[in-house]
């Protein structure tokens, strides 16, 4: 025979199918499987967002003032892409019209290098907060936006304490992007972690309110990776 065939031996009579037919059947089966996985992931994403909303409302409490004024959502911001992505996620997935957004920036302690140096540093920090506030007002007009800037070396404890003081119901942070395998091996060998990983993990484990670390999955796959006390890098397609 000039064409290649694969013999499927089962109950008689024996059936012979072209190999390309088996490949096509396999691809169709694979497509059906991937469609099922995608549908399941969409369902899990919706369930996850509903769980966030429910827990956030529980943290708010049932007081008349809380129901009237809505939730207070704190987003930790800086000049990194991760922080900007976290703010975009919060604006599109958690903030409602009656909520209040608190933009918190933790700056490094001012060095004793003269008034001019300290003044320029503070100016950049305030400009960052102003820019982030404009983003909130442009994407969610009508939502109240507050800004706060603190100084300190230990970002984790500062953020947790401020979130507690302001009685926020949800804390959102940017999560560092996944590094290369080589970089991860070096970090594992030296047993060290970046400052970003340390303070994010501290906030997740020690904050009194629900805390979420967010980062984009990738341009190709889309969605976000979400980390909480109960979930580690949960892939959220929405």
Describe the structure using short key phrases.
238 residues, Rossmann fold, seven-stranded mixed beta sheet, 7 helices, globular, disordered N terminus
Helix content percent band:
40-55%
Counting helices, strands and paired strands, the structural category is: alpha/beta
Question: For the record, what CATH class applies?
Answer: Alpha Beta
Count of individual beta strands: 9
- The CATH architecture designation is 3-Layer(aba) Sandwich
Number of helices: 7
Q: Into which percentage range does the β-strand content fall?
A: 15-25%
Question: What is the H-and-E element order?
Answer: EEHHEHEHEHEHHEEE
Flag low-confidence runs.
1-41
User: Span between N and C termini?
Assistant: 52 Å
Mean pLDDT: 73
Pfam families: Usp
Region (Disordered): 30-64
Protein name: UspA domain-containing protein
Domain UspA: 72-215
Short précis:
The chain has one domain: HUPs (Rossmann fold). It is 50% helix and 20% strand.
